[in-house]
Amino acid sequence: MSIWSILIFLLVVFEVCVITEPCKIPGRFARAVGESIIFNISDVFEGNNSLMLEWKLNETQNIVISANNVTITHPTFQHRVSFSQTFLHLNLLKLTDEGTHSVFIGGTKKKCFQLTVDVPVSKPRINVSIETNQTRLECIVDTGTRVVYEWLLNDSSLPSQSWYSLSDKNTTLTLNITSRDSFKCTVKNSVSSNTSDLVLPGNYRQRNYQIYYEKITLLAACISALIFLIFGFVWVLIRKRKKGRKQITPYSEGGRDTTIRPCDLNIEVKDDTIYSVITKPQLSVD
């Protein structure tokens, strides 16, 4: 291989390295959906309006191409971008705006910005479920992206102990003992954070026992009332049957069956005097 071939090879490698060398990212920017971001390019723009400016997302999607006072904006970013020789402004951010924003001037990459876009987290709530030997606390958040979960014991971080366990993403805290401490759930991402109201699992377990006791007591009261009603109904039927029958006393006289019927009591009033007349019962012979 000649010396010229080696020089040409080294030149090509040098050009490739210069072109493909990633630009230094001055910082990472985090914004919420709907907010705006301004990228400062005052230190890289050469002030020559004839140079072409390219603003790209992840080096694959052109946001803005501008040269000789002619600007072309991608339809996705229409009415959301503005720029000058000192800044790039992107408004009403979307989740799809996340990534590496690169600035090319005259075809050369000059500066890069790393942007992350997240949905703010809402206030979490804790769902408590009581089991026989365990208490489960589940942290639930309705909105938010890339949510990080953390549990607090009496407003402090959880100690490294064996009486509890956490799920993979720390969304669920399982207690293996009956605790009277207070617990909170904190959620956060790059643009927001929020904390739930405190819960006392011991009160939930005590309340659960109380509800169970109340149910047993109510069931026992219902069974007792049902038994009382059955006995009362039977007693009323027996009383009605006794009142509906006339009392008859049979006896035998001279080999004949006779029945003594009740006497008839007649009441008469004469000269403001009450007389009672007992009529002799008749003897019926069968």
Secondary structure blueprint with pairings:
Layout: H1 3-20, E1 28-32, E2 37-40, E3 53-57, E4 61-67, E5 70-73, E6 81-83, E7 87-90, E8 99-105, E9 108-118, E10 125-130, E11 135-140, E12 148-153, E13 156-157, E14 164-166, E15 172-175, E16 183-188, E17 193-195, H2 201-244, E18 249-253, E19 256-260, E20 264-270, E21 273-279, E22 283-285
Parallel strand pairs: 1-9
Antiparallel strand pairs: 2-7, 3-4, 3-8, 4-5, 6-7, 8-9, 10-11, 11-15, 12-13, 12-16, 14-15, 16-17, 18-19, 19-22, 20-21
Question: What does it look like?
Answer:
With 286 residues, this protein is of the alpha+beta class. It folds into 3 domains: 16-118, Immunoglobulin-like; 125-204, Immunoglobulins (Immunoglobulin-like), CATH 2.60.40; 249-285, no CATH class. It is built from 2 helices and 22 strands. The protein has helices at 3-20, 201-244, and strands spanning 28-32, 37-40, 53-57, 61-67, 70-73, 81-83, 87-90, 99-105, 108-118, 125-130, 135-140, 148-153, 156-157, 164-166, 172-175, 183-188, 193-195, 249-253, 256-260, 264-270, 273-279, 283-285. A 6-stranded mixed β-sheet has the order 1-9-8-3-4-5, with no helix packed on it. A 4-stranded antiparallel β-sheet has the order 10-11-15-14, covered by helices on one side. It has a 4-stranded antiparallel β-sheet with strand order 13-12-16-17, with no helix packed on it. A hairpin with a 3-residue loop joins β6 (81-83) and β7 (87-90).
